[in-house]
Amino acid sequence: MDSSRFSYLYRRYLANQCTESELKEFLELLKDQDEPANLLDPEEFNQQFDLQHQLPEDQSEAIFNRITQPKKHTWKLYTTVAGIAALLLSIICASLFLLKSPESQYKIFTNTTEDILRIALEDGSVILLRPQAVLTQSHAFQSEPFRKVKLQGEAFFIVAKDPSRPFQVQSESETSIQVYGTRFNLKFTPSAKEVVLTEGSLGMKHGTQEVRLNPQEKAYITADYPHIQKTAVDTMKYMAWTEHQLYFTDEPLHEVLKTLKGHYPEQSLQLPKQFQGLRFTGYLPDNNLPESIQILESTFKNYNLVINKN
């Protein structure tokens, strides 16, 4: 074996500079590689190969398979030399396992802002990610038979239709959503799972149970009752957040203030007892508390409503 040729190709491979013919030659030489002396020592390896660099998927796959497949021969080396070889091989395998690690196979979108994050997927689907929500997508999203993503938190989905490749949203648990070309709002949290369908068709799965939804319906699971339940809803209530709005239909005023407190936990809102029986229908901004209070007080000005804010 020409060790100098192998070393040359080896370094070009690690630098991702091999031509197609050089790559083929290198992989053939790698298959028959027995001499650890032809590999870089640990210090030189670390200097020449950045572990954060990711090789193209096909090259990473090829060398990963070559190194990890069983050999048809055994090394006949002294103990000390064998130990050095094992160390060097472990360094190479560690770098390849890093490149092939599950984390490197996914795109992770985390909304750490206070605004809505808009995500456009390769298939034409659009996802509006609510603050603190996390969406995980496979790098092989376009080539897999199912278009799969995973959600933590709340998001609104506008899914591009593709009957040959169904769209699936998975939770951290055994709950998932099977999508058939549709628009829907979805919330996956530790305490509850719920989906509201605004257009199209989908199914919620939990274990062996699946429930299909029609537009204007909600399917949900709670911690107290871990089975899918279904009910008719006003979808505006579940879509309003995409426009930074809160939507209420004939809601008791004390419940409206309870919702506002959830959005502004640093504020203490007090509703005098004489106004407890009032009910509100309409929109309030979810990012402007003074404006929300002004709208409520104007709506009920005939009642001389005053909301105390500390």
UniProtKB/TrEMBL annotation:
Keyword Transmembrane helix on entry: yes
Keyword Membrane tagged: yes
Pfam family, one: FecR
Gene3D superfamilies: 2.60.120.1440, 3.55.50.30
Keyword line: Membrane, Transmembrane, Transmembrane helix
UniProt-recorded Gene Ontology molecular function terms: sigma factor antagonist activity
Spans traversing the lipid bilayer: 77-99
Leader sequence residues: none
Domain FecR protein: from-to ranges: 113-201
Protein's name according to its UniProt entry: Ferric-dicitrate binding protein FerR, regulates iron transport through sigma-19
Organism: Sphingobacterium lactis
